[in-house]
Amino acid sequence: MPGITLGDTVPNLEVETTHKNFKLHDYFADSWTVLFSHPGDFTPVCTTELGAMGKYAHEFEQRGVKLLGLSCDDIQSHKDWIPDIEAFTPGSKVTYPIIADPNKEIIPQLNMIDPIENGPSRALHVVGPDCKIKLSFLYPSTTGRNMDEVLRALDSLLMAAKHKNKIATPVNWKPDEPVVISPAVSDEEAKKLFPQGFKTAKLPSKKGYLRVADVS
């Protein structure tokens, strides 16, 4: 995708939202943020997704993570849409702000463009406290997000950051499961980092690159 991507700083745009106006960096400061975009209000897949975000809001709050939506309509349209969102997904409350972008000026600056349809996309950026993009998802218009996967990937990012990126999470990893140690970490350093010990997989190559440890 062209435009900002992993490791890039999100531009410090002034945005109008359903809560108030603010600059993005002020919102991102001192916490992680899930920034997610939608092609438009009163559309079926988007309605289900914003409802799911509202229903999962407590999961993000427990992790100290903020939510920030974006849809390509104006503030009044967003406010009129919210009752539909909450009605369709029982237990959902849209307590997070939604950015207005009726002129589609913000979407391209955040690289939330669908290259197939050449318009606003169903995209998601996880932004760190340093205002840099840590992870991005881009979905076609026909496919809704999997909220459990968004949480799982977020937990992986938080775990790696907690351990200064000296660990990584393997395929299908979930919290409380073992992690793998970065190849950049020597065995001597690994012994200090993981005093509880770690296991090195015995592989046909006899290379000791796949080391597994339990962490918290």
TrEMBL record:
<keyword id="KW-0049">Antioxidant</keyword>
<dbReference type="InterPro" id="IPR036249">
    <property type="entry name" value="Thioredoxin-like_sf"/>
</dbReference>
<dbReference type="InterPro" id="IPR024706">
    <property type="entry name" value="Peroxiredoxin_AhpC-typ"/>
</dbReference>
<comment type="similarity">
    <text>Belongs to the peroxiredoxin family. Prx6 subfamily.</text>
</comment>
<dbReference type="Pfam" id="PF10417">
    <property type="entry name" value="1-cysPrx_C"/>
</dbReference>
<feature type="active site" description="Cysteine sulfenic acid (-SOH) intermediate; for peroxidase activity">
    <location>
        <position position="46"/>
    </location>
</feature>
<dbReference type="GO" id="GO:0045454">
    <property type="term" value="P:cell redox homeostasis"/>
</dbReference>
<keyword id="KW-0560">Oxidoreductase</keyword>
<dbReference type="GO" id="GO:0140824">
    <property type="term" value="F:thioredoxin-dependent peroxiredoxin activity"/>
</dbReference>
<comment type="function">
    <text>Thiol-specific peroxidase that catalyzes the reduction of hydrogen peroxide and organic hydroperoxides to water and alcohols, respectively. Seems to contribute to the inhibition of germination during stress.</text>
</comment>
<keyword id="KW-0676">Redox-active center</keyword>
<dbReference type="GO" id="GO:0005739">
    <property type="term" value="C:mitochondrion"/>
</dbReference>
<dbReference type="Pfam" id="PF00578">
    <property type="entry name" value="AhpC-TSA"/>
</dbReference>
<protein>
    <recommendedName>
        <fullName>Peroxiredoxin</fullName>
        <ecNumber>1.11.1.24</ecNumber>
    </recommendedName>
</protein>
<dbReference type="InterPro" id="IPR019479">
    <property type="entry name" value="Peroxiredoxin_C"/>
</dbReference>
<dbReference type="GO" id="GO:0005829">
    <property type="term" value="C:cytosol"/>
</dbReference>
<dbReference type="InterPro" id="IPR013766">
    <property type="entry name" value="Thioredoxin_domain"/>
</dbReference>
<dbReference type="InterPro" id="IPR000866">
    <property type="entry name" value="AhpC/TSA"/>
</dbReference>
<keyword id="KW-0575">Peroxidase</keyword>
<dbReference type="InterPro" id="IPR045020">
    <property type="entry name" value="PRX_1cys"/>
</dbReference>
<feature type="domain" description="Thioredoxin">
    <location>
        <begin position="4"/>
        <end position="159"/>
    </location>
</feature>
